[in-house]
Each structure stands twice: as structure tokens, then as C-alpha cells.
Amino acid sequence: AQSVTQPDIHITVSEGASLELRCNYSYGATPYLFWYVQSPGQGLQLLLKYFSGDTLVQGIKGFEAEFKRSQSSFNLRKPSVHWSDAAEYFCAAKLGGYNKLIFGAGTRLAVHP
Amino acid sequence: ETGVTQTPRHLVMGMTNKKSLKCEQHLGHNAMYWYKQSAKKPLELMFVYNFKEQTENNSVPSRFSPECPNSSHLFLHLHTLQPEDSALYLCASSLDREKGQPQHFGDGTRLSIL
Questions:
Q1: SS3 state of residue A58
Q2: How many Å lie between the alpha carbon of B56 and the closest alpha carbon of chain A?
Q3: What are the backbone angles phi and psi of residue B85, rounded to the nearest 5°?
Q4: Nearest to B102 by CA among A64, A48, A13, A26
């Protein structure tokens, strides 16, 4: 079955530290991949997406993600975290030609001053 | 006005009430979605509409009734809800004529059932 796994439920980092959030997918073919962020009381905002081509994609708010086919992974990274990055992050995937988006369970990020 | 707008932002209702959630998108998208987000549970896809036609009903109880009069508007009619229906209800839209397009989300309606 198609699935998206985010192994870390909670992550805490210090402000200014680097961040990596993990995401693994299980699909028969390479899906389209997305990262969303959700701040408290708000909806999901798209950070970045991977369709094809360059495996390192840049997104908004200084985030980037790297697609690794051999590991079925699409990890989100940021070199220096800001307190405002505290939120919940969702990885999602879908196959082309079909509009059902499958979400991971989310990773809640806390940032210490 | 751009983006996906949901109203109301908060709704408190009794189990015997009837209410409706509204979603409107100004992005020119053709597909619209309802999701349920409960605490400590993954996002649950409820309904999908494509060009006003329902293409997916994810085994949602009949006390939730969607309506999509056109590609810009989506409603979720609620009646005789249960306490476990308290959640954040998110609407999303996408341009599904092109493969792999992302979904754009509204800020949700926080629903509390008394």
C-alpha cells in the first residue's frame, strides 16, 4: 500500500541550530513529493515540492529538501532554525494523474531560545 | 482576494443542530477537497470534487454531506454530529488538469460538538 512515514513525532532544536526532518515514502513508482508546514490555528502552507530533475529543491522560508531515490526519502532541511519555525511539518506524496495526496503523520518542531 | 477561504473559523454546535461549513477558492482550480484533522491523528481525506463532480468519498458517515455547486465553492453540511466529530476541518483546492500540482489549503474551521 502507498504510504508516507515521518519517523519523528517531536523534535526540539535550539535557535540557530541546523534541522533535518525525515520523510520516507512507499510507492510503486516515484511520486510527486511535498512538504507543508502548519502553524497553530492555521491551515497547511506549502514549503516546497519535488516533481523531477534536480534532487535538491529549494523552498520558502529558507527550507530545502533532498530527494534520494535509493532510500525512498525526501528529507527537509534548514541550516539555521528561527524561533518562528516552531510548527508542525507534514510530508506528502501523490502519483501523477491521480489527485489523492497521502500525508505523513507530521513532525512537531519546538525551538528553544 | 486570493487563496482558499473558509468560514466560519470556529463553530460550536450541539449534537442536534444543523450547520454548514463554507469554502471558497479564488485560484482558478478545478478540484476541491475536505479533510478532517483530529488531535494525534493523521490528516483524513473526506471528500474530493473534480469539476463539481464527487470523485471520492472516503467512507464518511452520512451526517456529513458535501455540496459543490461550482469549481470555486465547496460546502460541508453537518447534522446530528457526535462528540468525536470535534476537529479541525480543512478545505483544499488544486489545479488537477496538470499532473502533480500541490493542494492549497484554507485555515480551517475548528468545530466543537457539545
A1: strand
A2: 9
A3: -85, -5
A4: A48
Asked if A76 and A20 touch (Cβ cutoff 8 Å), the reply is yes
Decide which of A65 and A29 is more confident. Answer: A65
SS (H, E, C) B16-27: CCEEEEEEEECC
Residue A80 has pLDDT above 90, yes or no: yes
A31: DSSP letter: P
pLDDT in tens, B22-44: 999 999 999 999 999 998 788 99
As a whole number, the mean pLDDT across chain A is: 93
Q: Which of B4, B42, B48 sits opposite A99 (nearest CB)?
A: B48
The DSSP output letter for B103 is P
Give pLDDT, residue B98.
65
pLDDT at A107: 97
> How far is it, in rounded angstroms, from Cα A90 to Cα A48?
11
Amino acid letter, residue B49:
Y
What would you report as the CA-atom Rg of chain B, rounded to the nearest whole angstrom? 13
| Record: contact B94-A99, CB cut-off 8 A | yes
